[in-house]
Prior knowledge:
The radius of gyration is 15 Å and the shape is globular. The termini are far apart. Helices cover about 40% and strands about 20% of the residues. Helix 2 runs parallel beside helix 3 (about 50-60). The protein has a single domain, classed as Vaccinia Virus protein VP39 (Rossmann fold, 3-Layer(aba) Sandwich), CATH 3.40.50.150. The chain is of the alpha/beta class and about 180 residues long. The longest helix is centred in the last third of the chain and has 14 residues, at about 120-135. It has a six-stranded mixed beta sheet with strand order 2-1-3-4-6-5, with helices on both faces.
Amino acid sequence: MNYVAERERFTRHLEATRWTIDYAIRADVMELMCEELKGCKRILELGAGYSSVCLRRICADVTSFDHDIEYAECVERYMWHRNLTNPHVGLLVDMKMGMRVWGNTHHLGRYDGILVDHGPQMTDRLHDMHTIIKCLAPGGVIILDDYKGGYKRGIIRRMPGFHIQTHRIGSRHWGVATRA
């Protein structure tokens, strides 16, 4: 997959709407995150967008959520246009239901890969970490975008028993968490 070209196509799609991609994960960082998640059979994504497109290229079963329904619908339209959603192979996009729905018992212990990049505030991610951990299957991996500063300290306190490896390219930081 050409991550740069896909990001450019997604950017053009968003420019036709009121959305921008200024805050999206960089293509080089997304490629490395996808490498960490490549062997996953089931991925939970919290915070939809360019990453939704990339994750669907590496995994047949991705469930994405976003806190903004209109943005989620924009992302969903792009994925349909790119033939990345196919209900017959389990690529159902559940983003419209809103962030609080993903914490229901249906999702607990189901995912061997989780990408955490949701909420307009880092406090949303910290608040949800207990449930995120419950959604992780044994042997799974959690990717934590923007893993730095106070957010990093808060995550470390909320994830005892996890080993978190920090990565950085330029100003982008992320963590890869596995159970110790």
